[in-house]
Amino acid sequence: MVSPNAGSKMMIQSYKHNGQLHRIWKNSVVLKGTESVIIGANDRTKVIESDGHSWMTREPAICYFDAKHWFNIIGMLRDDGIYYYCNLSSPFVYDEEVDSLKYIDYDLDVKVFPDMTFNLLDEDEYEENKALMKYPEEIHRILYQQLEVLIHWIRQGKGPFSPGFVDDWYEMYLTYH
């Protein structure tokens, strides 16, 4: 698998299980690109929803994507601390022809606050889409197993939740920006 080069720009494309495009983040800077991990950053980037509606992100964000785990993690730098938004999703694939990172969003999200407390979000949306799009039972098992891994990472301060991770990558982003 090909990976993007640090300093290059990429688009992030989120899809639903049925193949429908869900959301696009237009311009993210690649900070690290390997076959197993891509770390990107953006600040006030345009986001386009599947219905064509667009909006701008409000703060700098460090985005962590892993080819082995069924989640991705966005660390948002706000005045009162780092907030994380974690999407339960398929592992990423990188499409070099269009400089785009792609994944399937599986509805469940975890919001993590600066004090590392967290909330599971969108369980109703997950149950609705699971029935509507006929998520296989294997996907359901994987997602809940990976949710446990994600919660372990949060509680243990692992990966993007480790002290300094987001701040250090943000400093790297500033060298490109």
UniProtKB/TrEMBL annotation:
Residue span, DUF402 domain: 18-158
Keyword ATP-binding: no
Coiled coil: none
Alphabetical UniProt keywords: Hydrolase, Magnesium, Metal-binding
Origin superkingdom: Bacteria
InterPro entries documented for this protein: DUF402, FomD-like_sf, Ntdp-like, SA1684
Keyword Phosphoprotein among record annotations: no
Stored PANTHER family: PTHR39159, UPF0374 PROTEIN YGAC
NCBIfam families: PRK13662.1
Protein name as catalogued: DUF402 domain-containing protein
